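Record pair follows.
FIRST:
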Amino acid sequence: MKADRFKMTAVSDRLCTPVLAPVMQSRWIIALLGAATVIQVAVTAMDLTAWQCPLKSTLGVACPGCGLTRAIVLLAQGKWLAAIHLHAFAPVGLAIGLLLVAGTLLPAKLRHRAAEHLATFERRSGMVAWLALSALIYWICRIMIYI
């Protein structure tokens, strides 16, 4: 009985391990990710050819993130329904992008405090595991619609 409870606890601990919070600890990592996000969104907003999806380019299958950048651009333009229709995770992508940019600008002390709060939230909610599972289900549904 104890071994089963230990196994379940170990699995839930892995699923609730913070992912975003450790990234927030390093200004260089969030600066690089934030800059890449801003550049990708800006290039897409200017209707220029942005980074193409390697999965779609090679196999012809859309990845879970296909359309996300265009949807974030639509969100920034205030076209919420069109953005959600294009990619349901657009608000999540925008929130994570804003978190990266804000984390880059925060002083070290505030950034570390924010990362601690984020880690607590990630542990308690299992947010990353839920988002990953939701994205997988969403991707499967999108693939089934287009087949």
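SECOND:
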Amino acid sequence: MYHIKGKIDSKNAPEFEKEIMTALPKEVDAAGLEYISSAGLRILLRLTKAVGEVTILNVSPEVYDILDVTGFTTILNVRKALREISVEGKEVLGQGGNGTVYRLDDETIVKVYSSKHPLEIIDRERAYAKAAFVAGIPTAIAFDTVKVGDSYGVVYEAMNSDTLGHAITNEPERRDEYIMKYAELAKKLHSTVIDDGSVEKLKDLLMKRACDPVLLELCTPEEVEILKELVSSMADCDTLVHGDLHPGNIMINNGELMLIDMGELTRGLPVYDVASVYRDLLVGSQSSPETTKMSVGIDPELCVEVGQKFLAMYSGITDPERLEQYIKMIGLVFAFNVVLLIPDFPGAAQRGPAIIEQLLRAVVVPNVDALKQILSK
């Protein structure tokens, strides 16, 4: 990492150019940069011609204004210095695989990502949250990206209540009302179209996963082809899919449900989102009850009831036998998705073989035709 400090002007520009053109860095830390003149800017321009894209990190507001007004924010990848905050002693609202949500104060909450998440992933979540908000989806407004110790976080507007998961658990007299609102929010999301390319296509994402080297190691060539064939059979649509649509990722604000945790937002088949509900409420509550309670916010013994009611309200199916068949159909999509997610699991090489046996070979392969029919609709 190359560091710039002090002021860069016509007096020290020759020395600065000699140093930076010798180092040829692609990333420059500008935390100590107080000012840069046109002479310094031209050196940065020459650097981009020499190495390609250059990222300037930790830029102060004053230096950012210079880069912005001169058009250099379109030439360079410029990142402002992040505000640093502490979550020590703050209330934990929810915790999942990607990070932990804290209440900062009456006005704001912060989602702190695990340290493995790079800044690019976090910036993408902010961009996706903005795209969904503009499209009319009730989402928490994202303010700024912050530094929290060795991790990054995104600050959101605070809600007047808790998560939907906690409300379902703590207010049994309103449980059915909340589940109905949950289903209505899902249907609104799944009828919203974004076709401007601002959100990645689910089909493209899944094809990348089907070609992941980890899966290529675990599966036979024939099994890999089956996975690719199933992805290819998916209907091409631009409706929004949240990717992690459990009640712990939904806040309540003045009676309205609002989505958070938009990092897995894609455009694709709604059934994929429904399968995530199946995963968290029907399966996770049985296989990992403590983890489910922490992330979803619902007592494990209540999760199956909530999940089944959600699926009934979402699908509109009232006949018990038809509902059972619908839930089995969602279970097939869940199994297919888990197989494609193997490369993202901690200890994928150790856990993968068991998942391949239990889900790919025992569930997905015997039901390929049924899955194709589900995914093509």
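COMMENT: The chain has a mean pLDDT of 91.
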